[in-house]
Amino acid sequence: MAKKSRKQQPGGTPATVALTTAGTVFTVHSYDHDPASPSYGEEAAEALGVSADRVFKTLVADVDGELVVAVVPVAGSLDLKALASAVGGKRAAMADPAAAERTTGYVRGGISPLGQRKRLRTVLDASAGAHPTICVSAGRRGLEVELAASDLAALTDATLAPIGRA
What's the rounded Cα separation, in Å, for the pair 33 and 150? Predict the structure, then answer.
């Protein structure tokens, strides 16, 4: 079921390469992405047949001039005030999409919290701990990686905080 691999898989992304290099147990799930889909995260949950509270979206926000990654369930939304508080900031706003893409090395809808071009501070919603595994983008639209929330937190040096809203 879960795979642990030490060699790079063909078509690997920086996220899957980072997981493989770290020796983390993970499973890759792919699906046919529909460019007309209004929500990348909801599309992933539906395509994979996974509850939307177990599929997490990766959002990039600007907190007091610093880009920060927020990982929250697709079933809800990001509480910007809670995110700012979690990193000791005052104000948070969604980052400019072009800046997020340039900094992470991923395209919108495929931004992964793993294997980013420039490692950003990461905050993982505390609800992730309620599940044995969660799914996050593997670095490309139509590709998700399933892993333990504790592994994601360790690999990204994430702060766990209640930053999601139902």
Answer: 28
DSSP readout, the chain? --B--SSPPTT--HHHHHHHHHT--BEEEE----TT-S-HHHHHHHHHT--TTTBEEEEEEEETTEEEEEEEETTSEE-HHHHHHHTT-S-EEEPPHHHHHHHHSS-TT---SSS-SSPPEEEEEGGGGGSS-EEEEEEETTEEEEE-HHHHHHHHTPEEE--EE-
**Mean pLDDT over the full length of the chain:** 90
Pairing relationship of beta strands 164-165 and 77-78 according to DSSP bridges: antiparallel
pLDDT of residue 6: 34
Contact 70, 59 (CB under 8 A): yes
Give the type of residue at 37.
Answer: S
User: The whole model's pTM is what?
Assistant: 0.90
